[in-house]
Amino acid sequence: MVLTLRKRLRQQMLDNPRSVAPVLWAMRARTAAAHAWSESRKAASWLVRSVEADNDTDDLTALSREHLLWATALATGSEISLVERYADELDRDTALRATLDRATTSHPHGATLDRPIRDGRRIVWYALVRLLRPRLVVETGVHHGIGAAVLCAGLLRNVEEGHPGRCLGTDINPHAGWLVDARCRATGEVAVGDSLATLRRQTGPIDLFIGDSDHTGGDERDEYETVLPLLSDQAMLVSDNAHVTGELAAFSRRHGRRFLFAAEVPANSFYRGGGVGLSFR
Ligand SMILES: C[S@@+](CC[C@H](N)C(=O)[O-])C[C@H]1O[C@@H](n2cnc3c(N)ncnc32)[C@H](O)[C@@H]1O
Questions:
Q1: Domain covering 57-280, topology
Q2: In what helix (H) or strand (E) does residue 149 lie, and over which residues does it extend?
Q3: What is the 3-state secondary structure (H, E, C) of 39-68?
Q4: Which atom of ligand 1 is nearest to the CA of 122?
Q5: Atom 26, ligand 1: residue with shortest CA distance
Q6: For ligand 1, is residue 176 a contact (CB within 6 Å)?
Q7: For the residues 259-271, what does the mean pLDDT come to?
Q8: Weakest-pLDDT range from 110-114, 166-170, 189-193
Q9: 221-239: string of b/e by CB count within 10 Å (b at 16+)?
């Protein structure tokens, strides 16, 4: 019966779409309502389950993880199997997990982060550290220090394999980076102050730059232009804001670099996720 009705409706849509306009509107309303219901449920569940107010963390969907890893492989000219190996290495880094867990349990700001901490798109940042073996990584905008801890974990592995490197984080908030413990600080430091002022004091060469500070205006562009003369030949730039602005894409166009973007899709959140913009030669 329902099938016959659907068939007739389909036929009428082909013959004379105007005659079934109200039915089509009702169908669209049903689709919109189902979408709104599903999003409201996710938002309500987040409200109850999560303690995070900003910079939300979540697991990636399997598909998003796949896309992010392929983007990393393409941007670095690496085999996907190697990128996956490094991503799995991050998942299994028990020392990093213990460090993050200890910090979130003992630090007052730990109450504002969900546990266990999820790396999300930062899985790409880790893989880049392992693939590129940078001597200097710069991250603008450290916040709690999830990214900084992940970057330092990669640098520590590189050191074990005979490829030393260090990470300079910078944040305007003097409390930023509380997740970065003594073990991580063996390869990294957080400079307090405005990102542009910190970048202007650097001499480089920077092999990996991650822009994740002020997401609101022209600062993003200024950061890229400021680090340009400090970049090593094969330097990679990462934007944590490329899902919102076209700044890194435009920078890449201006300076003869290539650009690609892969989206972060959270598995359990109504938050749409960020992504990873990559600029490379
Ligand atoms: C999105 S959070 C960074 C997240 C971090 N990269 C991570 O992996 O979780 C943005 C940070 O940028 C910092 N920030 C905002 N404006 C800044 C500026 N002009 N200079 C330096 N840091 C800034 C904020 O204090 C905040 O901690």
A1: Rossmann fold (3.40.50)
A2: helix 146-160
A3: HHHHHHHHHHHCCCCCCCCCCECHHHHHHH
A4: 8
A5: 143
A6: yes
A7: 89
A8: 110-114
A9: bebbebbbebbeeebbbbb
**What average pLDDT does the segment 188-204 reach?**
92
Q: How confident is the model at residue 3 (pLDDT cuts 50, 70, 90)?
A: low
Query: 């990669």: which residue's tokens?
Result: 154
- Mutate-to-test residue for ligand 1 from 214, 226, 244, highest number of ligand atoms within 8 A of CB: 214
Residue 181 confidence class, pLDDT cut points 50, 70, 90: confident
Q: Quote the pLDDT of residue 156.
A: 95
> What is the 8-class DSSP label of residue 113?
S
Q: How confident is the model at residue 2 (pLDDT cuts 50, 70, 90)?
A: low
CATH 3.40.50.150 domain extents, the chain = 57-280
C-alpha gyration radius of the chain = 22
Instruction: Find where tokens 């730990």 sit.
Output: 110
C-alpha of residue 212 to centroid of ligand 1, in Å: 6
